């Protein structure tokens, strides 16, 4: 018994038909390849394929530079926050301070868990329903009668409450009038959010 399958036995006529089919298939394959090459040359350039590694991965020195820039930014941000907090404590102390334990000295050392994205340093890791997303906190305020957005902004903060007052003021400025009633998402509920509504008018 030969080491061959009977299914591989074909006639001369079948061989001629298969040859024609394969030649057409090969021709179309090369046509598609040339079309793809032309399209990718237009997108990436004739000397690139589109699958090259990002520059920072091709050159370790470039990635090291980005790492150092990120570290310096976090250190500068932490120092500025500490100086601001220290000034607030001094101002409070000058006014007579408050009762209770003295305020803790602000930390100038960067928290090792503090994070920044190397692709988009201004974006933040924000919690969402199914985990986390690297992005921004987008705010919008609309006119309930016209059903259009009249004010919007993009922020880095995780909570919405600090942005209640700016959005309300921005909306009032755009509409040219204050309003007695404002409907807000529950995320705006908080000390800062309630403060934005103080006085009963927005």
Written description of the protein model:
The protein has 202 residues and is of the alpha+beta class. It is built from five helices and four strands. Strands 1-2 form a two-stranded antiparallel sheet. Strands 3-4 form a two-stranded antiparallel sheet. The protein is elongated.
Summed up, what is this model?
This protein has 202 residues and is α+β, with helices and mostly antiparallel strands.
- The separation of the N and C termini measures 94 Å
Tally the helices.
5
Helix coverage percent: 40-55%
Given the helix and strand composition, which structural class is it?
alpha+beta
Q: What Rg is obtained from the alpha carbons, in whole angstroms?
A: 32 Å
Question: What keywords describe this structure?
Answer:
single chain; two-stranded antiparallel sheet; 5 helices
Would you spell out the secondary-structure blueprint of this structure?
Blueprint: H1 12-44, H2 55-58, H3 60-94, E1 124-128, E2 131-135, E3 137-143, E4 148-155, H4 164-175, H5 191-196
Antiparallel strand pairs: 1-2, 3-4
């Amino acid at each position: 018994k030969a080491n061959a399958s009977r299914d591989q036995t074909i006639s001369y006529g079948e061989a001629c038909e298969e040859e024609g089919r394969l030649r057409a298939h090969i021709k179309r394959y090369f046509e598609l390849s040339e079309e793809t090459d032309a399209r990718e040359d237009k997108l990436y350039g004739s000397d690139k394929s589109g699958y090259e590694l990002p520059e920072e991965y091709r050159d370790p020195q470039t990635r090291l530079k980005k790492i150092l820039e990120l570290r310096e930014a976090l250190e500068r941000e932490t120092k500025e926050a500490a100086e601001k907090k220290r000034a607030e404590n001094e101002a409070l102390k000058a006014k007579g301070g408050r009762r209770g334990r003295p305020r803790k000295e602000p930390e100038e050392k960067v928290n090792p868990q503090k994070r920044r994205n190397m692709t988009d340093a201004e974006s933040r890791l924000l919690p969402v329903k199914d985990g986390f997303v690297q992005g921004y906190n987008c705010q919008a305020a609309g006119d309930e009668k016209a059903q259009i957005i009249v004010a919007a902004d993009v922020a880095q903060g995780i909570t919405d409450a600090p942005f209640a007052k700016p959005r309300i003021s921005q909306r009032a400025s755009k509409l040219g009038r204050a309003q007695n009633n404002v409907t807000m998402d529950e995320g705006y509920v908080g000390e800062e959010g309630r403060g934005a509504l103080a006085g009963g008018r927005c």
